[in-house]
Amino acid sequence: MAIAKAERLMNLALCLLGTRRPLSKRELRSSIEAYLEAGSDDSFNRMFERDKDDLRELGLVIETVENLDGETGYLARRDSNRLPPIQLDAEEAAALGLAAKVWQQARLAGAASGALQKLRAAGMPEAEDTYDTPHSALEPRIPVREAAFEPLMLACRDRRPVVFEYRKANAARPETRHVEPWTLECWRGHWYLAGWDRERGAERVFRLSRITGKVRSRAGAFTAPVPDVSTVRETVESWAGETATRSALIRLRTDCGYPLRARALSVRELGDGWDELEIPYGHGLDAWLVEFGPDVVVLEPADLRADVMDRLRAVAKG
């Protein structure tokens, strides 16, 4: 469905850009196959008005002209829809080159590389690559290893509901989730999907590494409004455990768990190879602590200790 609409919009844009005189709705309908297949005049009119609004939102300048017979025509003049020459200095070129190197997997890698090649062909200056040396300490990469990333990225772009099997960290078996995907966010090296869970009737965040099997698309429109992007990012941040509401006390092996030490409110040496840390406690901290395995022991609060134990038991069960 998304491909058919994209093709229809492209055909309409080409018709409006390729004409030297305004084209009426009647002429556009006879020139575009998708409009010919419209069941009725009302159906065509609704489709055409939506497509025209979509093209304008994408930045195409469409003029409306009325002829001597009172018939309305449409065209998109090339001079009104031509971008100015792209001029970049060396620093801007370096920033674009670095951004293109970020994506090393999934579909975005080819798109980023292709865009960079077109800019260089148009005269963008070559920038010295200070991030691609064998001994560079800075690694501008965002790894994408999860197979669910690409289908979810496309579903977020096309606003298509999806279905997938999801295993919570404290569950032995996955559950089927019907989700309206909003956006993908990378947090601390892990990818998260934020969206509307239809069964639960609420906003949810899913870690991609816990999605099992294939992500399947479903037809139909979203049933819940998509919030502002900044709100979604705040939600992912909260679910990933960054927003703290209280503190927790843990034991940590000496010379281990440096990310935990970096966030610690206080550190006290206990001896025998252990330290005691007070760290911020927010949603998702239990999942993060489990990643450190036997190097971490939760002392308090009791509910955090119980959550970590439940996750460890689920891992032990496979």
What would a concise description of this structure say?
The chain has helices at residues 2-18, 25-31, 33-36, 41-57, 90-102, 108-121, 149-158, 229-239, 258-263, 285-290, 302-317; strands at residues 23-24, 63-66, 72-75, 162-166, 175-187, 190-197, 202-207, 211-217, 244-253, 266-271, 274-282, 296-300. With 318 residues, the chain is an alpha+beta fold.
Write up this protein.
This protein is an alpha+beta fold and 318 residues long. Helices cover 38% and strands 25% of the residues. It is built from eleven helices and twelve strands. The protein has helices at 2-18, 25-31, 33-36, 41-57, 90-102, 108-121, 149-158, 229-239, 258-263, 285-290, 302-317, and strands at residues 23-24, 63-66, 72-75, 162-166, 175-187, 190-197, 202-207, 211-217, 244-253, 266-271, 274-282, 296-300. The strands form three sheets. The protein has a five-stranded antiparallel β-sheet. A four-stranded antiparallel β-sheet has the order 10-11-9-12. A three-stranded antiparallel β-sheet has the order 1-3-2. The chain is elongated, with a radius of gyration of 26 Å. It starts with a helix and ends with a helix.
Q: Strand order of the main beta sheet, please?
A: 7-6-5-4-8
Query: Which term fits the overall shape?
Result: elongated
Mean of residue pLDDT?
81
The counted number of beta strands is 12
> What is the C-alpha radius of gyration, as a whole number of Å?
26 Å
Strand content: 15-25%
Terminal residue distance: 39 Å
Give the % helix. Answer: 25-40%
Number of helices: 11
* Uncertain runs: 133-138
Order of helices and strands: HEHHHEEHHHEEEEEHEHEEHEH
How does the major sheet shape up? 5 strands, antiparallel
